[in-house]
Structure formats: structure tokens, C-alpha cells
Write a structure and sequence with these properties.
The complex is a heterodimer of chains A (258) and B (391).
Chain A: E1 4-13, E2 16-26, E3 31-35, H1 42-50, E4 56-64, E5 67-68, H2 74-79, E6 82-85, E7 92-96, H3 97-111, H4 119-132, E8 143-144, H5 150-164, E9 168-172, H6 180-192, E10 199-204, H7 208-212, E11 217-222, E12 225-230, H8 233-241, H9 251-257
Parallel strand pairs in A: 3-10, 3-11, 6-9, 9-10
Antiparallel strand pairs in A: 1-2, 1-4, 4-5, 7-8, 11-12
Chain B: H1 3-17, H2 26-39, H3 55-59, E1 63-64, E2 68-72, E3 78-80, H4 86-93, H5 98-105, E4 110-115, E5 125-131, E6 138-140, E7 143-148, E8 153-162, E9 166-176, E10 181-189, E11 195-204, E12 209-216, E13 221-230, E14 235-244, E15 249-258, E16 264-273, E17 278-287, E18 295-304, E19 310-319, E20 325-333, H6 337-344, H7 350-366, H8 372-390
Parallel strand pairs in B: 1-6, 4-7, 5-8, 6-9, 7-9, 8-10, 9-11, 10-12, 11-13, 12-14, 13-15, 14-16, 15-17, 16-18, 17-19, 18-20
Antiparallel strand pairs in B: 2-5, 3-4
Helix pairs in contact in B: 1-2, 2-5, 4-5, 6-7, 7-8
Classes of the chains: A alpha/beta (258), B alpha/beta (391).
Amino acid sequence: MPLLEIKGLHATIGEREILKGIDLTVNAGEVHAIMGPNGSGKSTLAQVLAGRDLYAVTGGQVTYDGKDLLAMAPEDRAREGIFLAFQYPVEIPGVSNQYFLKAALNTQRKHRELPELDAMDFLDLIRGKIELMEMESSLLNRAVNAGFSGGEKKRNEIFQMAVLEPRLAILDETDSGLDIDALKLVAHGVNSLRGPERSMIVVTHYQRLLDYIVPDFVHVLAEGRIVKSGGKELALELERSGYAGLGIEDAEEAVGKV
Amino acid sequence: MTAVAEQTGAWLESFTKQPPAPECLRPLREAAFARFAELGFPTTHDEDWRFTNVAPIARATFQVAAADRFLRVPGGVEDLSPQEAQFDLASLAAGRNAFVALNTAFLDKVTVLRIPRGAVIAQPIEISYEVPDQADAVAVHPRTLILVGANAQCAIVETYKGQGQYLTNAVTEIVIGEGAVVDHYKVQQESRSAFHVATLAVTLGRSANLTTTSISLGGALVRNDVSAVLSEGAEATLNGLYLVNGSQHVDNHTVIDHAKPHGTSHELYKGILDGKASAVFNGRILVRKDAQKTDSKQTNKNLVLSDDAVIDTKPELQIFADDVRCTHGATIGQLDAESIFYLQSRGIGLSDARSLLTYAFAQDIVDRIEVQSLRDSLERSLFEKFHERTR
């Protein structure tokens, strides 16, 4: 049984249809890259899978671990092992990073009928993960993402992922806004979390990230549909010929040509 | 009988029946009662009381009583008799505020403290009032006067609590000498059926520094009047947090009077409204003609959690000097949907996410509290409050 099976998924925001029939199957341990130009629907797909109610699902089914994913509240999806690394992590002044993460971990542990961790056990657990992401430990005592640099926010997302150990991680343009050093660090964190029981969907505009997080499959999304799927070589092909080589208009590139 | 006479009549009976005051306070009480009888209770026709109807107080009858007072006076602070402070007690009562006049008319156990010049008092001065549950509704009129000598430093924590239906009508005056630093807190945790009216009047000497924080959690009908008058180079910070739900009403009126040049004031009031509650924020900043180089910033932020809650917020800037910087801003909003989703996406349930974000909104004010024991106890009670609300 696949971990995730998406069939004919349609989603709208307001009157506008963004996803126009997505089919995708992800098995345990697989890493799928979803590439596509701006406005193709990549981020919408990531958000819909995590349960953002800004989007209305108007058709199709999503089965996760044998369950109807679309019927689940966002927190239940997380408790069942889905993790979304946000493209724009939200700043939450007044809530410390450490409190937030401990609360999140304990609700998930409770759901899995594991004992909740006290402050000491929690600190023991996260120590190694902080080192993995080369995080300043002072960031733990600061409010969630408040005043963090772009790179610190993205690192914090992967740090959370390392602590929460999801079964399906969805990385939404985790590479955007990162310089090459930060990108390598984030990719290293992600790679260290790869394993036979953990699947990933890596959403990106650029091939660059996929040099460091090498996917098993690459899908190209355009205008709300997957127009081409292949192995990791598809990403390289895109790198050479651009989206235009597949006959896809990329708003960003089009602007560049004018 | 006029409406004013009808309302004040019952108070006249209490006034004449109250135990005699010390000789020196008698003229003060009498003058204040005459003032109260002349003014009567304010009505919603008064601009300052437009959104706060005190008719429930005016219509009710109260037995005048003394609240249980807990006073902790750290070493180095002088506990004075009211006789030694007649002048200050009189000056405030001459104003237009009927509640201050009423308080003065019933002066009884006055708390008068003096911090000597240059003294640094590390322990906070604590003044707590608690009204025990009683068969008849009572009115208590706590009165506090604190005289802070030049270059002295102290922290003051006032707390108001009680059970059942009653009226607290408190007046606190702080006179801050040149270069002195005062950190003041008022924590209002009255019963949910109590009326609470409190006036805080502070005068700041040259280069004096005041931080005052008003935390309003309880009460059915609450009105806080805070005023600060700044001398040259003085700095005042007015912070406030009000939490209302059910049918609670809390009104915060503040006046910052920049009387002299080079003054600085910062004001941040935050409110959380739920149920059918209502709140008022009216922040008046007065910059007098002489008060050049004034720097003043006022912010009022409101988190409205229900459709039926009502907030009236109004900045009132009166600027007569030309070389000043004054900014103000008010916001009224709901919890941020994106923040809620972010917390949910990590497994935190919707109701917990909402309570966590509400707590975080209030935490901003609590974080600024310098007295650690107070900060800890408020953190605990706020945390419990928001968690019980959503469960």
C-alpha cells in the first residue's frame, strides 16, 4: 500500500481553480521532487496536503496510510506524521520556540500513546538536533521565528522536522532565499533524515536544491497538472532547457526576457 | 429632588453616620462631600464617561466599610500619619472627578508612605485590599499616598480582590521627586460582580522616571483613570492589559500631561475581549506650549475573540508646542489565521492554538513586569485562564 495516493485532486482559492487534477503516488521511503514555474500550483498542493483551509478542495481523493486525508483536521494530519516545512515560516511573538516545539512534540507523542516528555527529557532529545542544524541554542528561548533571518527560519523548519520525525515531510520551496552555504546546511539536515520509513515531497522552482537532495522521482507541474514525470535526470533536463523547453511558460523567466 | 440629589442622598446618610475622623481630616471630608454632592455621579452625557454608564453604581446602595488591608512596607520606607499629608490629600479632591471627591469624603485608613531622598528600596512595597463576602453590598474607599524623595527608587504593587457584590473606589497618588525612579503596578482581580473605580494621579519631578502597569482581570464594571504630569526631562511609561469576557466592561482613561520640555512618554495598552464584553481606551496626550522636544508614543492593541464584544478606542492628542514628536496607533483584530494554521500543522489542536496565541498577545505586557514574583503569578493565572476558556 502506498503511503500517499492522490487521485484527480482539484482545488480552488476563491473563484480561481489552481489544482486541476493532480495524480501522485508516494511510497514509503521515496523522495519526490515537484518542480514547476511560479503560479503552477506547487505551493498550493503542499498547503492542501497539510490542510490549509484557505483552499477549497473541489474534487478528487487523497489517501494517506489508508485513511481519507482530506477528512482530517490539520492537527490530526500532523499527529499522523505529516510535516510541512513552510515556504514562509510564521513569526509568533510571545511564544518561545522551545515551548512551542515541546507542546507540539507532546501532543504528537500522546496521539501515538507514548509518554509525554518533561523539560529535561525534551532538552536531551533536542540537543543532537540543534547540533545537526548548527542552530544557535539561544534561538530556542526566542519567540517562534520572531526576528529570525530568512536562513534561520528555514533552518528552524528543518530542526522542527528533525524533532517531530514525520513519516511524510513536505518541503515547500525550502531553498528559496537561501545562500549556498545555508542551502547545503539545510540539505544536509534533510538528507540525514532520509530513511526507508520516511517519505518526502520536495517542492522547488530551481534544480539547484536537487543537487543536494537527490530525489527518486521528479514531477513537473504546470497550470495545476503534472505534465511530465521521470527520474532525477528530468531535473537536469529542466536545468538545461528551462521550463520553456517543455513548452511551459514561466512567469518569472518571461519577465526576464522583456 | 433633582437626579443628582436623589443619587447623593443615600451617600449623605452614610456620610453623616460614619465614625468621626481625626480632627485634621474633618474639614477635608466635609469639603469633599460637598464637592461630590455638587458634581453628582457622571452620566454618559459627560464626554469622559460617554461609553461607561455608572448608573448601576449610582442606583445601588452600599454600606460604607473598610476593606481588609495587607500592607508590606520594606525597610527604609516611612509609614506616615494622614495628618502629615493633608495638603496632598486635599489638592486632588478639588478636581472634577466625583469618585475622588467621594473617596475623600470617606477618608479613613489612609496609607501614607514616604521614601526618603536617595533611598533605594529593593523589595516592592505591597498594598493589597480584599473585600470579604458580606450580606449587604459594601463600598470601600482605599486611599494611598506615596511621596518619593529625590533620586530615590522603589517599586509599588497594588492589588484589589474580593468576593460578592461591592464597590471599590480607590485613589492612589504618587509624588515623585527629582531624578527618582518608580515602578508601579496595579493588579485588579475583583469579583465578577464587583464595581471597581480607581484613580491614579502621578506627578513627576525633573528627570524623574515612572513606569506604571495596570492589569485588569476582574470586575463587572471597571473604570481606571491614570494621569501623569511630567516636569522637564521626565519619562513616563504607561502599560496596560485588560481581559474581559461575559458582560464585563472595562474603561481605561489615561492622561499624560507634558507640562515641561524634553519629556518622554510611552504608552502601550493591550486588550483581549470575548463574549459580550466591552472595553474603552481613551488616551489623552497633552503637550503644553512650553513642552518643546517632547517625545511621545501611544499604542492601543485589541484582540477581539467574539462577534459580540465591543471596543471603543480613541487617542486624544492636544499639542500646543511645535517642536515635538508624537505618534499614536490603535489596532483591533482577530487571531491571525496563518499563525493558527502554523501551530496546527505541528499537531497543536485548534483550541490550544487559539489559547496559545491569545496568551502570547497578553504575554507582551507581562514580559515587561520587573517584579518577578508578580510576573510569575500573572503568567500562571493567564495561562490557566486561557486554557480553561477553550476547554
